[in-house]
Design a protein that fits this description.
- With 321 residues, this protein is α/β, with parallel strands linked by helices.
- It has helices at residues 2-13, 17-23, 28-32, 41-53, 59-68, 75-84, 154-167, 180-183, 185-194, 210-224, 232-248, 260-269, 276-281, 291-299, 302-318; strands at residues 114-123, 129-137, 143-149, 173-176, 197-200.
- Strand 2 (129-137) and strand 3 form a beta hairpin.
Length: 321
């Protein structure tokens, strides 16, 4: 900072280097010093290319992508280059809300046990509106479908779910809001035939379906707000491409920066050794954990995590707040 002040004083007030260094004050050797750091031009070019193709990725997710390509970098170096290149993604600050007692939700303990389902709306280039049905596996974070249509009735939702169940078995429950599409007889009939429990959240409490709300935010930020949809078919094509990228290429912070499809493959393979912490990380929504808790979930074995969880629950039940 003092070096910049000395250079500013030299330029603005036409001072000599000796006089400016004496006024700040700062050693003249510091003012004359020229850094010899590697400019890392190749890394900067690749970072700009990735940031240009994935415009809503922050520096941490870009660091993961660079490491996959073989670059020996860490988050601090990428953050420095990221800011120097002017690639910072602007995010809207969240409003502060009063804390409320949250209702404990059921937690998925294995893949395909609990799904979350919701709708998002999007406007086409011709100003017509479409709706997109989003379905997410709460354990593996996989996006199971992005079904777009001009209108989505209960019958169309049931038909979209039938396509998912045809490739994988039906879940035990699906968490949904109180929309009319989910509360009509067509959905009750589908749930009864497939042995699925429709878990309705309380009205006006979208936080109780946090998995799908978090996913919808990513979909809106990385796809819907970036792409221009010229027609319904164009929207379906672009949503299919983003779905494949999300499941097979996009690193997920709640899965130790693994892809959802990769994590699902690990779970289906039954590999418990080195992946025990990774499997345990999927049991907790990322938004409910701090950075310290993230490190604990990644480093600790599953048995100690379960023991710690049981201890915390027991102490909470015994000792009043």
């Amino acid at each position: 900072m003092r070096r910049e002040l000395a250079e500013w004083a030299q330029q603005v007030h036409d001072l000599s280097q000796r006089r400016a260094a004496r006024l700040i004050p700062i050693d003249r050797a510091t003012v004359r010093y020229e850094p010899h750091r590697d400019p890392q031009d190749a890394l900067r070019v690749r970072l700009r290319e990735l940031a240009g193709s994935r415009v809503r990725y922050g520096y941490r997710r870009l660091t993961v992508l660079l490491k996959r390509e073989g670059w020996e970098v860490n988050a601090k170096r990428i953050y420095r280059l990221y800011t120097e290149e002017g690639l910072i993604v602007r995010t809207q600050k969240r409003r502060a809300h009063a804390q409320r007692q949250r209702v404990a939700q059921g937690v998925a303990l294995r893949p395909n046990e609990r799904w979350s389902m919701d709708f998002v709306a999007q406007r086409l280039a011709n100003r017509r509106w479409i709706r997109v049905l989003t379905v997410v596996d709460q354990y593996t974070r996989e996006c199971l479908t992005l079904h777009a249509d001009t209108a989505l009735s209960g019958e169309k939702v049931a038909a979209a779910l039938d396509k998912i169940v045809a490739s994988r078995r039906a879940p035990k429950s699906i968490t949904v809001d109180n929309g009319t599409e989910f509360a009509i007889k067509a959905m009750d009939h589908w749930a009864y035939n497939n042995g699925v429990h429709l878990d309705f959240i309380r009205p006006g409490r979208p936080v109780e379906n946090g998995y799908i709300e978090s996913f919808n935010g990513k979909l809106r930020d990385e796809c819907l707000n970036v792409e221009v949809f010229f027609s319904l078919m164009d929207a379906r094509r672009k949503l299919a491409l983003w779905l494949h990228d999300y499941n097979y290429h996009r690193p997920h912070s709640a899965l130790a920066d693994r892809m959802p499809a990769e994590f699902a493959a690990v779970c289906s393979g039954g590999n418990d050794g080195d992946n025990a912490a990774l499997e345990n990380a999927a049991r907790f929504p990322h938004s409910h954990r701090t950075a310290t808790a993230d490190k604990e979930l990644t480093d600790a074995p599953i048995s100690s995590l379960l023991l710690e969880t049981i201890t915390r629950v027991t102490l909470t039940a015994i000792v009043p707040a």
